[in-house]
Design brief:
Lipocalin, 194 residues, 8 strands, alpha+beta, 2 helices, 2 domains
């Protein structure tokens, strides 16, 4: 009887350590901040990652308009960091550009102490972030390190592959319709249709 109890104690201790390991692993990989986030203008998706040093960073992973539109002076070219104050960086592509850096988790579960870069105007701001729920984060860029004066936005979690697939499918469908109209018009103009 004593051997059975000793063996059960060993199993219970092993089970407890295994459970703690699994729990800590799940906590580590269930970080709400990590993921793909759509900005409110629905034109940019940023991926938030956690570095080994426990800082959070973000990179542009998707642009609705990867290339400059027709009315732009750089029409047809891939978007670059052209407003960066440092001339050396003005040719960096916006896709994969780091736009969030050095954010650290505080006791209240908010991220602060880092920066947010706005490539549209070439300015870097003090940054912070706060979880609203598992699918929404309040992201703020401020001109002061106390985050009093700045701009806040609510960003929404998205599945990048699903978002790309859905967006591209709709966009491509519209393009096919336009091409169809163009072809029909050209065929009609050469007398193919009566």
């Amino acid at each position: 009887m004593l051997n059975i109890l000793k063996n059960n104690k060993v199993y219970i201790i092993i089970l407890m350590f295994f459970s703690l390991f699994i729990y800590s692993y799940c906590e580590e990989n269930n970080d709400t901040y990590i993921g793909y986030w759509l900005l409110p203008n629905n034109k940019v998706i940023v991926e938030i990652q956690k570095n080994e040093d426990d800082t959070y960073v973000g990179y542009v992973r998707w642009l609705k308009e990867k290339f400059y539109p027709e009315e732009d002076k750089m029409a047809g070219e891939e978007q670059v960091d052209r407003n960066n104050p440092d001339k050396e960086f003005r040719t960096r592509k916006v896709i994969n550009l780091q736009v969030v850096g050095d954010l650290k988790r505080k006791e209240n579960n908010e991220l602060a102490g880092g920066w947010i870069y706005d490539s549209w105007n070439g300015k870097k701001y003090y940054g912070c972030a706060k979880i609203i729920d598992k699918n929404h984060i309040k992201l703020k860029g401020s001109i002061d390190k106390w985050n009093l004066f700045g701009y806040s936005m609510i960003i929404k979690r998205v599945d990048l592959t699903e978002y790309e697939k859905n967006f591209e499918g709709k966009d491509l469908g519209f393009l096919k319709i336009l091409i169809g109209f163009y072809v029909a018009h050209r065929l009609r103009s050469v007398g193919f249709f009566y």
